[in-house]
Specification:
With about 260 residues, the chain is an alpha/beta fold. The protein has helices at about 30-45, 105-120, 140-145, 165-170, 185-190, 200-205, 245-255, and strands spanning about 1-5, 15-20, 125-130, 155-160, 175-180, 195. The termini are far apart.
């Protein structure tokens, strides 16, 4: 059981939050974290790098000097691949390359939680009882960071509704902000510290921050069951009972 200290705005420890390691994977899986990091990093590549061959480079095709009599090596056009500013021998002919790969859903979710466990083990999670400002105040947010000893890059994660906190943190150097339901292994491993308030951290641990937002950990089990439309009932026209054959014959006889 991990006991995470809870701080107030002045940096004073006022409470502790007990976190079970089993909810975050039990142990740090270094291979899984590296795999999630590399895949996420690769998915951010645009794949739009292009090069030019000697036919694409702007310039003359005139032979620089005559073939013989100069004492120098033979030389053709100035756009050859052996000269500065010339073309590339094997250019990238595809206009866009796709480097995207996918990680299975269960592995991705476990990696996100396991990265948080690694931060907790290294005492790099700074949790405040509440991070709420009446108006955006960058100076006050910086004082809170200094009070808990944050001197490196940090990731600030909070709920979407906490707009003033977002605006207060986004202009601080070395601080990146994100929603708590968008917390992932790549962002956690790219920053030394994680700054979060208690309510947002609890919602991430129990999964309530993903309800109704279609987030990474939103599952079919937590989603409300869709109501099936009621079956339409069509009334059949009433069928009149047929008269007995004997009564029909008697009626015919009387008419005759």
């Amino acid at each position: 059981m991990i006991e995470l200290p809870i701080y107030d705005s002045s940096g004073k420890k006022i409470d502790t939050l007990k976190i079970d390691e089993q909810t975050l994977g039990g142990e740090i899986r270094h291979a899984l974290l590296k795999q999630a990091y590399v895949i996420t990093h690769g998915n951010q590549r645009q794949g739009s790098a292009r090069t030019k061959s000697r036919g694409d480079v702007h310039g003359s095709t005139r032979k620089i000097y005559k073939q013989k009599g100069t004492g120098s090596a033979r030389a053709g056009a100035a756009r050859t691949n052996i000269r500065k500013g010339g073309g590339v021998t094997f250019k990238k002919s595809r206009t866009r390359e796709d480097f995207r790969t996918e990680l299975p859903k269960k592995m991705r979710r476990l990696a996100n939680r396991n990265a948080l466990l690694a931060k907790l083990v290294d005492n790099e999670v700074k949790c405040f009882a509440s991070i709420d400002f009446k108006a955006p105040r960058t100076a006050e947010f910086s004082k809170m960071m200094e009070a808990v000893g944050i001197n490196r890059t940090c990731l600030f994660a909070t709920e979407k509704s906490n707009r003033n906190a977002f605006l207060s943190a986004r202009n601080v150097a070395g601080v990146d902000v994100c929603r708590i339901d968008q917390l992932n292994a790549f962002s956690l491993l790219n920053h030394r510290f994680l700054v979060v308030d208690k309510a947002a951290l609890v919602s991430f641990l129990d999964g309530t921050c993903f309800d109704g937002c279609g987030g990474d950990e939103a599952t079919e089990d937590t989603a409300p069951a869709a109501k099936k439309p009621a079956a339409k009932t069509t009334k059949k026209p009433a069928v009149k009972a047929a008269k007995p054959a004997a009564a029909t014959a008697a009626t015919t006889k009387e008419v005759a």
